[in-house]
Amino acid sequence: MTAAQQALAIARIAAGQGTPEARARVIAWDRLQGMLSKLDSKTSALLRFNAIVVAALAYLVVVSAADPFAAAGAAVKLAGKIVGHVSLLASVVSCGFAFPVINVEWQFFGSRLDRADDDGTEFDDAALQRFGDLVTSRTRLYSWAWRLAVTGGIGFAMLVGLATLH
Q1: What is the pTM (predicted TM-score) of this model?
Q2: Quick one: the chain helix, strand, coil %, rounded to 5?
Q3: Which of 111, 109, 136 is nearest to 124 (CA)?
Q4: pLDDT at 127 over 70
Q5: Lowest pLDDT segment from 23-32, 44-53, 108-117
Q6: pLDDT of residue 117
Q7: Which pLDDT score, from 0 to 100, does residue 12 have?
Q8: How far is CA 91 from CA 38, 50, 119, 164, in A?
Q9: What is the mean pLDDT of residues 33-44?
């Protein structure tokens, strides 16, 4: 069954040509699809934030020959170095958790969209469960990506604060 045929089958169910259970599945599928779409949007914004933080931290910590803590004491220099490296690592790892959230999903009702498949895979509870599991796993990944991005962002703010004060 092609993706177009599967989409038409769902549309027919949504239009009333199916059992109440099948219509409930379509509503659940749409709700899960909406959740996945929101995760995709949030992850896109999170990755933009991480890109800014990673670029700034990489410049300050790795690339720049200028030491923002040149006039500071040894403790402040060490703190700046630790905070900078930990923040950079947290932001990079955050990206690692975020990329699979926006990954293309090749499955549709359990068959692959990039291959011809004539087995007529059904839109059943198992397909809905697989999609729900996908949303759950991507939500978990986004949660970790967000936590690490916040850690990296706070570390960057601390680094800027340290450099400003000393």
Answers
A1: 0.78
A2: 75, 0, 20
A3: 109
A4: yes
A5: 108-117
A6: 54
A7: 85
A8: 21, 6, 44, 22
A9: 92
φ, ψ dihedrals at 105, nearest 5°: -95, 115
Average pLDDT for 32-44:
92
Measured between alpha carbons, how far is 148 from 84 in angstroms, rounded to an integer?
14
Q: What is the token pair recorded at 13?
A: 């169910």
What angle, 0 to 180 degrees and rounded to 10, lies between the N-to-C axes of helices 125-165 and 20-57? 20
Q: Are 109 and 127 in contact (CB under 8 A)?
A: yes
Decide if 150 contacts 47 (C-beta within 8 A): no
The CA-atom distances, in angstroms, between 26 and each of 13, 38, 131, 150 are 7, 18, 12, 36
Q: b or e along 73-82 (b: 16 or more beta carbons within 10 Å of the residue's beta carbon)?
A: eeebbebbee
